[in-house]
Design a protein that fits this description.
The complex is a heterodimer of chains A (about 140) and B (about 400). Chain A is mostly beta strands. In chain A, about 10% of the residues lie in helices and about 35% in strands. Chain B has helices at about 5-10, 35-50, 65-70, 70-80, 100-110, 140-145, 155-170, 175-190, 200-205, 235-240, 260-265, 275-285, 300-310, 320-325, 340-345, 350-365, and strands at about 15-25, 60, 85-90, 115-120, 210, 215, 225-235, 245-255, 295, 375-385, 385-395. The longest helix of chain B has 16 residues, at about 35-50. Classes of the chains: A mainly beta (about 140), B alpha/beta (about 400).
Chain lengths: ~140, ~400
């Protein structure tokens, strides 16, 4: 299966993808107000603290919105078509939308509000992708 | 953040007129340098007004596309324009509708009397849409966290906006199709349109999906070309060649999502900062949304017309899709929208063609697509996370 390798020039990208390689989903959390910041901007927009720590999150979330992609806008994704591209609200911080794919699920069953959970998928020797699959709903899923 | 001071804003209303407009041929690809296309458009707009580059005091341009395609200093140098004022306004399609207010502010400050705004694009040489331009992703978040996970191609974000809208308010395929078929029918009436073919609802419903629910006819064209318009003060406008079209009101708003991640992380989703921009524009103009007779709404994808109709107050929240399906946005309807064919048919020149078409409608020059007795029109344009609404009035 084709894929687009992440650009690892930023330290944020290196930390995030290194976590994925160990099947750990890391997100940056503000040292000041403890809110998650995604993406990691130069300061926290709520408390203006500069520093953030990368901490593991559960990988559980809810589908905020999605689309079934029927045309590949990059040749590397041609054998993904059709696939579900989605914005996922992590249960730890519903104001963030994590970009990923929904897998292990009939395309027609994907819906807004669907509980999902991360599933790490190795695509080659160096790269593990954090994709998402359906999960049974639990507490924290009423993020709308 | 305080909101705008309506009393002060009202003083600017009507002080700036658009007195000349022009665009080059809009085509998918040309070998011509976009800077030369910009020069051609500026000369055309000045000629339309009966002016020359020697009359120009300042240039107003967007701060995202123009610096990459046809930088102001190069275009001004090529035209021999000595400037007493120069400003880059908000990005992409939020830039062109902002230009009349920026020119009005410059005139109020005594910094000149003739201003030009232009835009040149060469989207035909690139993949569709801005988000695939390398320069919009300089910070690398998209390359690091979005593209590897499949978020590639501008239609995806708009398709996700449509999915979210469908979840919140309901949205049928026929309702989206009503946007695309109506605007493309308008384009078939425009001799300058890049695409003059109308699309029937049956053809729409059998066309391929790009990113559900968006089908091929929901998506804009890829265009290379340029457009420009000329602005001056109320007094001087009366002496020029064309009937003036006055800036009655302008409003701008930006969300807290930066350009780096405006699609996926902005707090309002779908895109809704147009609502604040419109409120500010109507406040400056001192008119109500139901007085608007036509609208030119930036339409890279059909769903964006539905959202902006609502956000501009031209129909009730959540009713944009049925408003379109009921035929109100067709020429001859209650509120004709994108009478030139918009970005779906006329060409993808951000909001430049929307401003130009509004001016031509208010001059009564639009022939088969003319809105009868058009006196007040609205232009809605947006860039990444930023939005501008402009109200133009016949002089």
């Amino acid at each position: 299966m084709g894929f687009i390798a992440p650009d690892l020039r930023s330290s944020a990208a290196q930390i995030f993808w290194e976590g994925c390689s160990r099947s750990v989903l890391l997100m940056p959390r503000c040292q000041g107000c403890q809110r998650f910041r995604w993406y990691l901007q130069v300061a926290c927009p709520w408390c203006w603290t500069l520093e953030a720590d990368w901490v593991p999150v559960s990988g559980d979330g809810v589908v905020f919105t999605f689309t079934v992609v029927e045309r590949a806008f990059n040749p590397a994704l041609a054998d993904w078509i059709p696939f579900v591209s989605a914005l996922i609200q992590p249960i730890e911080s519903p104001d963030i939308r994590f970009v990923s794919r929904i897998v292990n699920c009939d395309i027609d069953d994907v819906h807004v509000g669907m509980p999902v959970s991360v599933e790490f998928c190795r695509v080659d020797d160096r790269l593990v992708m954090p994709l998402f699959r359906p999960r049974i709903a639990g507490p924290g899923d009423d993020t709308g | 953040m305080a909101d705008v001071d309506t009393a002060l804003a009202r003083r600017l209303s009507g002080t700036c007129a658009v007195v000349g407009v022009a665009e080059t041929a809009l085509v998918k690809v040309t070998e011509r340098d976009p800077r030369q296309l910009a020069v051609e458009a500026v000369l055309g707009a000045l000629g339309d007004a009966g002016l020359t580059p020697r009359d120009v005091d300042g240039i107003v341009a967007d701060d995202e596309v123009t610096p990459r395609t046809a930088p102001v200093n190069e275009v001004a140098a090529a035209l021999g324009i000595e400037r007493s004022f120069s400003v880059h306004g908000p990005p992409a399609g939020s830039g062109q509708p902002m230009a009349p207010m920026l020119a009005a502010m410059a005139m109020a400050a005594g910094q000149g009397s003739v201003f030009v705004s232009y835009l040149a694009v060469d989207f035909g040489r690139h993949e569709p849409g801005l988000a695939n331009f390398s320069y919009t992703n300089e910070a690398g978040d998209a390359e690091a966290f979005e593209k590897p996970l499949g978020f590639v191609g501008t239609p995806l974000g708009y398709a996700m906006a449509a999915t979210r809208y469908r979840y919140l308010f309901g949205l049928t395929d026929r309702q989206l199709g009503a946007v695309a078929t109506t605007i493309r029918r308008h384009g078939s009436l425009n001799p300058a349109a890049q695409l003059r073919k109308a699309v029937s609802m049956d053809e729409y419903l059998s066309s391929p999906y790009i990113a559900r629910p968006l089908r091929l006819p929901d998506c804009c064209l890829r265009t290379t070309g340029a457009g420009a318009f000329v602005m001056t003060g109320k007094e001087r406008a009366r002496d020029l060649r064309r009937r003036p079209v006055y800036m009655r009101g302008t409003g701008y708003a930006a969300s807290t999502a930066s350009r780096r991640h405006h699609w996926t992380q902005r707090p309002e989703f779908p895109f809704r900062v147009t609502r604040q921009a419109a409120q500010r524009a109507f406040a400056m103009a001192g008119v109500a949304p139901d007085e608007v007779q036509f609208a030119q709404i930036q339409d890279p994808y059909s769903i964006q017309v539905v959202l902006q109709l609502e956000d501009c107050g031209l129909c009730a929240p959540g009713e944009g899709a049925s408003f379109v399906e009921d035929g109100h946005i067709a020429i001859g309807g209650r509120l004709p929208v994108n009478t030139d064919g918009g970005q779906l048919s006329h060409g993808y020149l951000l909001a430049m063609t929307h401003v130009i078409e509004a001016v031509r409608q208010l001059r009564g020059e639009c022939g088969a697509r003319q809105v009868v007795d058009a006196e007040l029109g609205l232009v809605s344009g947006f860039g990444p996370g930023e939005s501008t609404v402009l109200l133009l009035e016949r002089g």
